[in-house]
């Protein structure tokens, strides 16, 4: 525990009389003090006047008054002799330490999570075995995308914290305002989202299992409506400037009609890792609009919100198409061929998504004999191409020219200098998660919702690792460009010698 002494403000009332003497007549010792003072300075005048125009206050009276009042003031501070007029006694406030507060909040957070798990589990056990799996799948569909968004915010806060501890100026890289969200504010947003989403899910499970179907159906609708209102609110609350920056960047991603900046394609890359989140959000909103929440009408394969809907692959491919058109826009502006190669990388995800969706629209024999091999080939091409681009282009590790030659300082980054195991881990995990990512993009495998949830979470962890190297690589490029411009603006030694010699020769010609 930490003791904090908080002195409170003390206000004194001034009056036309001194505390020691009533009336305006000066005391004898004050007269003597005044005469000596006037004879010394050769000036005859009043003492310092008070605000109400009263008589002058003798400094000697003030000294005597202060000495006389000192014991009484000490007694009043100790609680003896009544209250002092116009003053408040300083208070001692006991404040808990920050570590204690953090631990207390963490314990409350865990207790709340355990309560939600207990209530949710008991609610599921109340249902019949036949409907239990369908009920869990539906509840999971409404809430798992929001949980994954909360996870991404947590990880992004960790990214910002690491950048703040290092030499990477992420504020300059993303061209952020001074009012941008710090890692603490990102974690605060993630904490609230992590609390609200499981609470709403627990209420949904509890109400549905106890027969309150209409109230249960309103829980996800209310949650989505509140979050949408907060995101689109035009009022100066809930980090308005940051929300405006985010929405403006999203708009630039959807319509790449202007020059592409680093924040534009950086956020678009993150959206490609969240394509499954967008697909589940579309399924959830579809059921809410068609009033299929807390029902099994959506389970029919041919329904508008069923698992065979064409909207599923369309939403899955949307982030890749946005990134594809961004690359074309970059090629138009820069004429660099690497932009076309990058666009080719994103185009390889399109066959993976649509070939998987064809399983529900072709005969089983055709799927096994023709479409499934094509899907596997396209998945391998997409995974390997994406892995190569991450290492060679986005991170600039040049691993294909120096296979695991990590002793060279040129292959290190400033963030993780000297830690060889980090590079082995990042390379291996990136390759494995790139391959498993195609499992998530496959619409015909989405009924294994727990497996898909875990793979999607792991993909966000892979993207979390990717952010460190991508942002630091961009910062190194900006620093190198800035240093080159500064060196080009400064004249070289030879230029200075030529300039001095020409100046000397011109002066000699002037004298002749």
TrEMBL record:
Residues 486-512 are annotated as: Disordered. Residues 303-502 form the EXS domain. It is a multi-pass membrane protein. The chain crosses the membrane at residues 100-121, 141-164, 189-209, 221-241. Residues 499-512 have a biased composition (Low complexity). Pfam families: EXS. It comes from the Eukaryota. PROSITE patterns: EXS. One of its GO terms (cellular component) is trans-Golgi network. It is found in: Membrane. Keywords: Membrane, Transmembrane, Transmembrane helix. This is EXS domain-containing protein.
């Amino acid at each position: 525990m930490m003791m904090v002494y908080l002195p409170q403000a003390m206000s004194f009332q001034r009056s036309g009389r001194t505390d020691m003497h009533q009336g305006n007549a000066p005391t004898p010792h004050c007269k003597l003090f005044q005469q000596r003072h006037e004879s010394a300075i050769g000036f005859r005048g009043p003492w310092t006047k008070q605000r109400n125009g009263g008589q002058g206050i003798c400094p000697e009276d003030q000294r005597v008054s202060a000495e006389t009042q000192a014991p009484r003031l000490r007694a009043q501070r100790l609680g003896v002799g009544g209250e002092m007029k116009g003053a408040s006694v300083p208070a001692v406030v006991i404040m808990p330490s920050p570590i204690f507060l953090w631990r207390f909040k963490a314990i409350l957070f865990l207790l709340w999570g355990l309560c939600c798990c207990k209530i949710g589990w008991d609610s599921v056990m109340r249902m019949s075995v036949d409907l239990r799996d369908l009920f869990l799948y539906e509840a999971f569909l409404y809430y798992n995308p929001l949980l994954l968004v909360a996870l991404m915010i947590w990880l992004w806060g960790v990214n910002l914290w690491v950048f703040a501890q290092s030499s990477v100026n992420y504020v300059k890289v993303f061209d952020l305002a001074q009012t941008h969200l710090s890692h603490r504010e990102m974690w605060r947003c993630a904490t609230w989202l992590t609390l609200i989403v499981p609470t709403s899910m627990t209420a949904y499970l509890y109400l549905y299992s106890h027969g309150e179907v209409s109230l249960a159906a309103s829980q996800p609708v209310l949650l989505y409506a509140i979050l949408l209102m907060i995101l689109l609110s035009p009022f100066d609350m809930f980090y308005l400037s940051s929300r405006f920056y985010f929405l403006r960047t999203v708009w630039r991603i959807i319509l790449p009609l202007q020059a592409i900046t680093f924040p534009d394609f950086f956020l678009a890359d993150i959206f490609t890792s969240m394509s499954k989140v967008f697909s589940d959000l579309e399924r959830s909103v579809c059921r809410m609009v068609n009033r299929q929440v807390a029902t099994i009408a959506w389970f029919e394969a041919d329904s508008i919100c069923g698992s065979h809907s064409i909207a599923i692959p369309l939403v899955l491919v949307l982030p890749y198409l946005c990134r594809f058109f961004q690359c074309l826009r970059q090629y138009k502006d820069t004429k660099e061929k690497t932009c076309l190669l990058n666009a080719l990388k994103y185009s390889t995800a399109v066959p993976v998504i649509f070939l998987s969706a064809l399983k529900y629209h072709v005969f089983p024999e055709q799927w096994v004999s023709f479409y499934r091999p094509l899907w596997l080939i396209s998945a391998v091409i997409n995974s390997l191409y994406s892995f190569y681009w991450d290492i060679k282009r986005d991170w600039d590790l040049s691993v294909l020219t120096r296979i695991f030659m990590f002793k060279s300082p040129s292959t290190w980054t400033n963030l993780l200098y000297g830690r060889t195991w980090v590079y082995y881990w990042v390379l291996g995990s990136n390759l494995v998660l790139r391959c498993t990512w195609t499992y998530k993009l496959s619409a015909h495998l989405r009924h294994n919702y727990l497996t898909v949830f875990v793979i999607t979470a792991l993909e966000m962890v892979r993207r979390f690792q990717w952010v460190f190297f991508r942002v630091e690589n961009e910062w190194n490029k900006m620093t190198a460009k800035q240093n080159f411009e500064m060196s080009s603006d400064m004249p070289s030694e030879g230029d200075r010698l030529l300039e001095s010699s020409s100046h000397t020769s011109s002066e000699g010609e002037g004298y002749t």
